Amino acid sequence: MNTYTIYDDFITLGKLLKEAAIIETGGAAKHFLETHDVLYNGNYENRRGKKLFDGDVLEFPEFGLKIDIIAATAEEIAEHQAELDEEARVKAIVKKINADNKKTEMRQKSAANNKEQYYKRKTSKPKFPGAK
């Protein structure tokens, strides 16, 4: 038997299927539930929005898989929150780096374009009045 730890009050069936890597995307939950039997506490369930709480049991008879839903301890919740905070911090850094790189790239393109325009003006031959 497998266990799945929830860090909030509940998790929806569709989200659990995705996080447990039973399906690849959240959009595939509806199709999966239409084509496969899922037992929620012994009863058939096909609603992807069904809320799963601590102590609930999911069974997938076709795969021989049984998942117990358990609530996280205070220590696990704190650790999970620290991981989420670190992930958010890294995302913010990456976003800032990408923005800075884009600005630098735009400046380089602008400088190259200005330089190109300067040399085009410098290398063109002067035009004299009356000359053809």
TrEMBL record:
Listed SUPFAM superfamilies: Alpha-L RNA-binding motif
State if RNA-binding is listed as a keyword: yes
Annotated region (Disordered) at: 103-132
Per UniProt, the keywords (alphabetical) are: RNA-binding
Query: What InterPro entries does the entry give?
Result: S4_RNA-bd_sf
Which Gene Ontology terms cover its molecular function?
RNA binding
Q: What is this protein called?
A: Uncharacterized protein
Q: Which organism is it from?
A: Pseudolactococcus reticulitermitis
Organism lineage reads as: Bacteria, Bacillati, Bacillota, Bacilli, Lactobacillales
